[in-house]
């Protein structure tokens, strides 16, 4: 599986993502700087976590409007898998590749801890290797993880089986406990938790691993 | 030409920051604060001298970047 990790000024989780992709996928991903207009031809594009542009204006807002996002949008339309984790999820929402928005955590505090997630669908290239309904562990680290969408969008997400993960014990006030969602074509996944940080025993668990193994098998 | 763009949360969108400010005002002794909604103000100077054209340009800026129209409304005023 060839992959690319796109880095913006202020991204800071690209190292962990690169390590996870290399350890599980066997290939070192291309690290693409945001100023590059062209993406290498890959099977997976990842936007990692961090604080792109210092979260100025709104989390992900400035990165979402960069030229590299047009290239990512084109690849997503061709069916290439796109994964946005944490700030990556915020960027994908701001760019319109996923619906809705991530607002300030309901409790206003930055949350850095381990949470539990329920795998809500296995019908995607990201979640096929999980068991539907399985409860998995995952770290979160965010201040703006409170997912919001209007009633119509929420009904569509539910009706089309596009909610990939829900929190078991909602940490941030997200509507309907949403932790991760899929695009209409199911090839774009945005999620606040960090599956790349739970991939080997030294991390304290392996619950993030099936996500990468699913992509590898897809 | 100087303009002011005001971005506010749409009605019905939960505003945790506004709620926290509301609580803080109450604890400072300001009784009777019914609600607080936090927004943003951008003071922007543009080269355009035609007020109509400037307003159209600023509306585009607001729609494209300054506001996230999923949750926010915006208002553009030319101030001189």
UniProtKB/TrEMBL annotation, chain B:
It catalyses: N(2)-formyl-N(1)-(5-phospho-beta-D-ribosyl)glycinamide + L-glutamine + ATP + H2O = 2-formamido-N(1)-(5-O-phospho-beta-D-ribosyl)acetamidine + L-glutamate + ADP + phosphate + H(+). GO terms for cellular component: cytoplasm. One of its GO terms (biological process) is 'de novo' IMP biosynthetic process. It is found in: Cytoplasm. The keyword ATP-binding applies. Pathway: Purine metabolism; IMP biosynthesis via de novo pathway; 5-amino-1-(5-phospho-D-ribosyl)imidazole from N(2)-formyl-N(1)-(5-phospho-D-ribosyl)glycinamide: step 1/2. Keywords: ATP-binding, Cytoplasm, Ligase, Nucleotide-binding, Purine biosynthesis. Belongs to the PurS family. This is Phosphoribosylformylglycinamidine synthase subunit PurS. The gene is purS.
């Amino acid at each position: 599986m060839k992959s690319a990790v796109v880095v913006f000024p202020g991204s800071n989780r690209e190292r962990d993502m690169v390590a996870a992709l290399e350890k599980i996928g066997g290939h070192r991903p291309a690290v693409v700087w945001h100023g590059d207009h062209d993406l290498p031809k890959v099977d997976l594009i990842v936007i990692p976590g961090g604080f792109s542009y210092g979260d100025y204006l709104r989390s992900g807002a400035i990165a979402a409007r960069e030229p590299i996002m047009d290239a990512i949008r084109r690849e997503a339309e061709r069916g290439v898998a796109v994964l946005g984790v944490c700030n990556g999820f915020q960027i994908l929402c701001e760019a319109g590749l996923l619906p809705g928005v991530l607002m300030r955590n309901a409790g206003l505090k930055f949350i850095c801890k381990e949470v539990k997630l329920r795998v809500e669908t296995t019908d995607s290239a990201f979640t096929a290797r999980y068991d539907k309904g399985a409860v998995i562990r995952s770290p979160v680290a965010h201040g703006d993880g409170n997912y919001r969408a209007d009633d119509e969008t929420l009904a569509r997400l539910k009706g089309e089986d596009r909610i990939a993960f829900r929190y078991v014990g909602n940490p941030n006030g997200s509507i309907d406990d949403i932790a991760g969602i899929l695009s209409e074509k199911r090839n774009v996944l945005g999620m606040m938790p960090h599956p790349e940080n739970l991939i080997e025993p030294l991390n304290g668990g392996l619950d993030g691993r099936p996500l990468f193994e699913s992509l590898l098998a897809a | 030409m100087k303009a002011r763009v005001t971005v506010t949360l749409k009605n019905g969108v939960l505003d945790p920051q506004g709620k926290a400010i509301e609580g803080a005002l109450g604890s400072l002794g300001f009784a009777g604060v019914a609600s607080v909604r936090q927004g943003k103000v951008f003071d922007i100077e543009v080269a355009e001298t035609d007020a109509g054209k400037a307003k159209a340009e600023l509306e585009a800026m607001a729609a494209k970047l300054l506001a996230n129209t999923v949750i926010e409304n915006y208002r553009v005023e030319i101030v001189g």
